[in-house]
Amino acid sequence: MMFQPTLLLTSALIFPGGIGAQNIAIIGGGISGSFASKYLVSYDVNCSIDSISIFEAMPATRSANVTIAPSDDWQGSRVSSVRLRDGSVVELGASIGYEGFHLILDMIRGDSSIKLGKPYNIGTSEVDKRIRDGLGIFNGHGEWNLLTSREFKIISKLKLLWRYNYDLVKLSKFCRQALKKFADVPSLLASLEPNTFFASPDALWDALGLKKAVHSSFDDLLDALALPSEVPWYKRYIPYQGSLRSELLTAINLVNYNQDNSQVNGIVGLGSFAATTGSLFSVEGGNHKIIQSATNQAISISLQQCDGKAQVQQVPKRVSTVVGGSATSFSLFSGQEKLGNFDIVVIAAPLQQAQIEFMVQSNFDKAVLQPMPLTELVDPDLRETKDGHAALPTRLPDSAFRPYTQVVTTVLANATISEEHFNLSQEQLPRSVYTTSKGKASLHNITAITQLSSKGLYKIFSNDRLDGKVLMNLFGPHHVVEYVKFWGGASGGATPDYRGRGSSVDFLLYDGAIGFDGNTVSGALYYPNAMEQSSLACMEISAIGAMAVAKLIARRLRLIMETQTKERNRDEL
Ligand SMILES: Cc1cc2nc3c(=O)[nH]c(=O)nc-3n(C[C@H](O)[C@H](O)[C@H](O)COP(=O)(O)OP(=O)(O)OC[C@H]3O[C@@H](n4cnc5c(N)ncnc54)[C@H](O)[C@@H]3O)c2cc1C
Ligand SMILES: *[C@@H]1O[C@H](CO)[C@@H](O)[C@H](O)[C@H]1NC(C)=O
Ligand SMILES: *[C@@H]1O[C@H](CO)[C@@H](O)[C@H](O)[C@H]1NC(C)=O
Ligand SMILES: *[C@@H]1O[C@H](CO)[C@@H](O)[C@H](O)[C@H]1NC(C)=O
Ligand SMILES: *[C@@H]1O[C@H](CO)[C@@H](O)[C@H](O)[C@H]1NC(C)=O
Ligand SMILES: *[C@@H]1O[C@H](CO)[C@@H](O)[C@H](O)[C@H]1NC(C)=O
């Protein structure tokens, strides 16, 4: 061990600016992986990183072909769309962006070829004058809690205010405060202050003053705000009163997470609510263009910085094994095929979906592989080592292995929604049907029905695949099933199963380099998706995870240094 300090000093002498050639692997080319590549090259102004390889099992560079059924054994990016025979494009996963998506919007602004459109746009320029409007919350058995269709926006707002009154005011106020704190994320991540190099999602939420909302269920947060789950007795005699909590708030969490207020954590609930109060967008021609653009921006910045050298590479391969060497690098494999050696690996996909075996070579016999102890990093001075690795690793929490929530997206054409089943005439039906818990249970576990065009194009979210009889009852005998995307199975799922709280693992999952000061360079495995497991799951959060990780890597590679300027003060919400 004695020689290590000298070694590091020598390398510092040879490479006064950075630390020399480094090969980085990013596993996963969704939002997290593509954004990480752009952020990494943006730090690497002197082109000191040797290579950045993005491995993606199922590249989503364009919309899926409607005539080819999606693969059931590999899910792919959760931002993806399908192109129908008439040329319209329907989002299958992430469809809606929110005005508070600062990093996503920044990326979009970096590319003049991306056009922002209205939510649920199908990429056609013609205006659909006969498309319905508004939102309805269905409570099952012909009963509607809320209907805002065919009204001017201002009346809808008044209607909401009348029905939910003080609850709505209180939650809106709280949500505005939370959003103001959340808006600090880009500047915190851009800062070089020592306390802005967040080791974990928890550290970030703590700095924002939002940690409490992450660690409790949304129900607990609503209890703390004294929002009732039923209409209180003294309001029962006033017409048209409802419970914000069991109606609108439940419905939006079911739509976005397929989990109710007790199952999601506080920050998820606030995020879902925020999206009902601000303006929304969707990229014309498909949100996957954001991913494509992030990678293209990374490639073009890097070509400029590296005098035309191909630093960033996209590799259409599924990584199946990561082997940590006894020294400081990783070997990646796709089945039997060796993909190369890498100093730093970013795993930009949920661990429970990536289907990767993480191994390390034994120090005693390099031919012997043992499971890599994926742990939170402990102080190297404190940890006992056995075989060169922590003897008592901090185990990853259960939440790191729990399967994600299953959702099925069904796209129907030529459908006529049943007036009888929904107890409304075609004129009265809203564009989006959401459900309460009771409504969902009575509606074959459907959580959303959205009309995409007045020609009978609909998108449905449900727990399970919907059988033909059910679809016939709800959407008439002439409906055509255009496409069904299953978000689930062994390598899939839509959002983390929160069980009432976010959980946090560090961004640094494994550190193979046990050097002096714990201040080593190679051999690190980073995990941006820790972010969605700690908090909410949306495109912006994936971008935040990517930026937080890119910043830690940049510090590790000495592309940036911590600089102390001033103290930040913060208060907990
Ligand atoms: C039905 C649905 C609706 C949603 N609605 C919204 C919404 O309206 N707004 C919103 O903001 N968000 C929404 N989301 C959430 C959003 O899609 C995700 O939070 C976000 O896209 C996650 O991006 P990611 O890159 O972190 O992960 P992923 O999109 O899961 O990307 C991981 C990538 O890694 C690849 N990969 C995994 N393992 C390997 C391996 N071993 N080797 C190679 N490649 C691998 C996968 O193929 C995949 O492309 C929705 C999600 C779903 C499923
Ligand atoms: C979709 O697939 C079909 C059948 O394989 C093919 O004929 C068609 O050209 C494809 N469409 C597009 C847009 O690629
Ligand atoms: C249908 O809606 C009407 C109000 O428009 C309501 O009075 C009636 O009870 C509903 N029917 C059922 C079966 O709930
Ligand atoms: C709805 O989901 C619940 C819980 O997963 C399940 O018990 C129930 O059978 C489902 N109902 C239908 C109609 O599929
Ligand atoms: C679409 O529905 C209409 C009735 O609404 C029917 O006449 C027509 O045949 C259907 N088209 C297809 C392609 O099924
Ligand atoms: C890049 O190179 C310039 C000029 O040699 C140097 O001043 C700067 O510190 C370097 N930046 C990094 C991040 O290494």
TrEMBL record:
Q: Which cofactor does it need?
A: FAD
Q: Where is the signal peptide?
A: 1-21
Q: What GO terms are given for molecular function?
A: prenylcysteine oxidase activity
Q: Does the keyword Glycoprotein apply?
A: yes
Q: Which UniProt keywords apply?
A: FAD, Flavoprotein, Glycoprotein, Oxidoreductase, Signal
What Pfam families does the entry give? Prenylcys_lyase
User: For the Prenylcysteine lyase domain, which residue ranges apply?
Assistant: 150-370, 401-558
Residue stretches spanning the membrane: none
Swiss-Prot/TrEMBL GO biological process terms: prenylated protein catabolic process; prenylcysteine catabolic process
Of which family is this protein a member? Belongs to the prenylcysteine oxidase family.
Q: What is this protein called?
A: Prenylcysteine lyase domain-containing protein
